[in-house]
Write a structure and sequence with these properties.
This protein is α/β, with parallel strands linked by helices. The protein has helices at about 15-30, 60-70, 125, 135-140, 155-165, 185-195, 285-315; strands spanning about 5-15, 35, 75-80, 85-90, 90-95, 100-110, 115, 130-135, 150, 170-175, 200, 205-210, 215-220, 225, 230, 235-240, 250, 255-260, 270-275. A hairpin with a 2-residue loop joins β12 and β13 (about 215-220). α1 (about 15-30) runs parallel beside α7.
């Protein structure tokens, strides 16, 4: 397809809760916006989402369909395609799509999220989002009063996760999968014992599944530990794709790296803003949507000021003389 000659105010890359929330706020501010999404939501494997007022229990597909209807109602363009290249800078970004189309924009919103890297145990990825889980606040209620196992790769984080799960179940076991017994200090052992959490040493070799349900884990030495759901702590990897070519700085953390942003979502690349898990690895669906809204407000404010400066410079330029540069 031919390159599109028009320049829209904002191209949003990523059509999840963060990207669509940004697009909604920008559309209501009468900005011209295009949202590009490849159709691979991170939570597609989950049967439902939780903790989002008015949408608790909705499937990810239901949530996205409702969000797209809201966004489309304000004239925002929704494009299902993959971004293959990003170039340019403020007021002249060029976003190339796999289908050949080139979008031009004054600003970009990066809302492409993260991907989850699970511990290397056979069977985990196949059960991910169903009975292999990560967040107790997202899924703990759905597995309440069952036997729950925590797959430990980090002693401090695993102890905290096991203690949290005690709010949903009185039968929690901590599996010392990726750590040695001596890494679990006396304080951690005392906290676990006080909460009634049992500790099993030894790496996990596989899941035990029957009738399409997790029934336990099999340790590498052959022992089996019964459980009905397994909680893990994945590492989060940024889905930057072509946006990486712009060189945004990242900040390392315990769960992985995020983009360096200010409190409104500005990245270290002028004109590029980040929302959702790119900016906050811990954000759930509700939090990601809020970050998208905050980013949109910041972008609109920046564009309003830029437009005002341009009008002022044009108005007060000497008659017939060179145009004055925009005021700083």
């Amino acid at each position: 397809m031919d390159e599109q000659p028009d320049t829209r105010d904002v191209v949003v890359i990523g059509g999840g809760p963060a990207g669509l929330s940004a697009a909604l706020v920008l559309g209501r501010a009468r900005r011209t916006v295009t949202v590009v999404d490849g159709g691979h939501p991170r939570n597609a494997c989950s049967p439902s989402l939780h903790g989002f007022l008015t949408r608790d229990g909705a499937t990810p597909a239901e949530f996205l369909a409702a969000a797209r209807r809201d966004v489309a109602g304000y004239g925002t363009e929704l494009v299902e395609d993959e971004v293959v290249a990003v170039a340019g800078g403020p007021d002249d970004f060029r976003v190339t799509l796999a289908g050949g189309r080139v979008l031009r924009a004054r600003r970009l919103v990066a809302a492409t999220g993260v991907r989850d890297e699970l511990p290397d145990v056979p069977g985990l990825s196949e059960r991910w989002g169903r009975d292999v889980l990560h967040c107790p606040y997202c899924h703990g209620h759905e597995v309440r009063d069952r036997t729950l196992a925590v797959l430990a790769d980090d002693a401090e984080g695993a102890v905290h996760q096991a203690l949290l799960l005690g709010q949903w179940s009185g039968d929690v076991v901590l599996l010392l999968h990726g750590i040695a017994e001596e890494e679990l200090d006396d304080d951690g052992r005392a906290l676990l014992a006080g909460a009634g959490v049992s500790v099993v040493a030894g790496p996990v070799g596989s899941l035990v599944v029957a009738d399409d349900e997790v029934r336990g884990v099999r340790l590498e030495d052959g022992r089996q530990v019964a459980c009905e759901a397994v909680f893990v702590a994945p590492r989060f990897r940024l889905n930057l794709g072509p946006l990486a070519a712009l060189g945004p700085r990242t900040v390392a953390g315990d769960m992985g790296s995020r983009l360096e942003t200010d409190d409104q979502g500005r990245t270290t690349v002028p004109g590029v803003w980040a929302a959702g898990n790119l900016a906050d690895l811990s954000a759930q669906v509700l939090g990601a949507a809020e970050l998208g809204s905050r980013t949109a407000i910041g972008i609109n404010g920046e564009l309003v000021l830029a437009d005002a400066r341009e009008r002022a410079a044009a108005r007060f330029a000497p008659a017939g003389g060179p145009r004055r540069p925009a005021m700083e």
